[in-house]
Amino acid sequence: MLPRQHTRGSSEPVLKALTLAVMTTSAVDSLVLEDGSLASYTGSSSDEDDVNPREKQQKNSRGSSDFCVKNIEHAAFGRREIEIAEQEMPGLMALRKRAEADKPLQGAKIIGCTHITAQTAVLIETLVALGASVRWAACNIYSTQNEVSAALAESGVPIFAWKGELEEDFWWCIDRCINAEGWQPNTILDDGGDATHLMLKKYPAMFNMIKGIVEESVTGVHRLYQLSKSGKLTVPAMNVNDSVTKTKFDNLYSCRESILDALKRTTDVMFGGKQVLICGYGEVGKGCAQALKGLGAIVMVTEIDPICALQACMDGFRVVRLDEVVRSIDVLITCTGNKNVVSRQSLDRLKNGCILCNMGHSNTEIDVASLRTPELTWEKVRSQVDHIIWPDGKRIILLAEGRLVNLSCSSVPSFVVSITATTQALALIELFNAPPGRYKQDVYLLPKKMDEYVASLHLPTFDAHLTELSDDQAKYLGLNKAGPFKPNYYRY
């Protein structure tokens, strides 16, 4: 028998409990108590209204309106997210503590164009603590955490970013960062090269006054090398993407975890026995392949590079062409950094129910534009998940409209971001403080010594104790006892 308050005559508590249990995340997000406070808050508020943030009049508690975010009133939630991230970013926090008194970035005016997440916020606030003045925009229209943007705006950071920006909004936000009255940028931190591209195209005189560019993506680095080759790169640039602490840790170890997180959150699919094709077996592809193989998926790989293809073979993966397996695969993941890796012709041949997503930085790997035609129906299933339906009823599941799936649909482990963010911060410090003539108008790799320093800042978390060389051993190897320990040509 039910307790008295739960009998048929008094069912209100039961109905209330059941109602709360079946509420969607977005509904729970906005659940308000009698005193006006939020009872529960999870996820992102990006779908709370349809008003474009550019049309809103918002100010932070300091009276500043030099920002554009979804809702400044959600700053407190974003601050909690940032505080959680700080606990998992020991290297960056250690750098902040060690260098804060010296202010190595005093006088630096940094344009930032990266993913806006709690982890990025820790980097931004570290740069500010080291003396920099910053203005920030998002490099991806879907990866921004709105509450984090609000927290940064509340703290005084001029930030222009919200989840679900239109293409026009995207470029407007970057432009607002660059073209600010009474503020001349002298450094760029880019992820994809968009801030660099816009400044060079629209503000060439301003671009020529930049002291240096730090770029962390394959796409952005490719653009920089193209500029250098054509003689259009008039400032030094640091290729952080190919530093060891970025390539191995962010590209390999981070993707190994975040690909599963993104796929599980969006599709709830079970991977055991599924046929998965991964396009590209670089560090990102290697991480994705390892993760899916570990869950029992049958993983295949496409490659253009014979060395990477041989690595895939030695790791136990079949190397195939897309057209050989396109009709039988259950999941297709692109990790190449190239364009039109999956064409409309291949999309037409995918099996019913195939899951399609991109782990490369650019949104050009899957020819999504070719799917926006009258004969195909787009059906939104949930946030960042669309069914594309063919006339015969076949449907594929497209995640994040072909954009970076792990940052659009899930999150990236804070600890790995700490490694990358510390590398970025050191690259900015190096370029900003370099004496004239040290760096020419070219693209450089981060010095090996700095890579080793970044790694050393993260070892205490694991209670790891490095072995020290004796004088005799150091002499035998021809090394400085303090490093660097490997030559630049060494492949980790």
TrEMBL record:
Signal peptide (from-to): none
Domain S-adenosyl-L-homocysteine hydrolase NAD binding, residue spans: 251-412
Keyword tags: Hydrolase, NAD, One-carbon metabolism
Any one GO BP annotation for this protein: one-carbon metabolic process
Domain of life of the source: Eukaryota
Positions annotated to bind NAD(+): G282, E283, V284, G285, K286, G287, E303, N406
CC terms in the record's Gene Ontology section: cytosol
Sequence positions that bind substrate: T117, D191, E216, K246, D250
Cofactor binding mode and count: Binds 1 NAD(+) per subunit.
SMART domains: AdoHcyase (SM00996), AdoHcyase_NAD (SM00997)
Pathway participation: Amino-acid biosynthesis; L-homocysteine biosynthesis; L-homocysteine from S-adenosyl-L-homocysteine: step 1/1
Recorded catalytic activity of this chain's protein: S-adenosyl-L-homocysteine + H2O = L-homocysteine + adenosine
E.C. number: 3.13.2.1
UniProt KW Membrane keyword: no
Database matches in Pfam families: AdoHcyase, AdoHcyase_NAD
Gene3D superfamilies in alphabetical order: Adenosylhomocysteinase-like, NAD(P)-binding Rossmann-like Domain
Region (Disordered): 42-64
Needed co-factor(s): NAD(+)
GO terms for MF: adenosylhomocysteinase activity
Family: Belongs to the adenosylhomocysteinase family.
Entry protein name: Adenosylhomocysteinase
Organism encoding this protein: Pomacea canaliculata
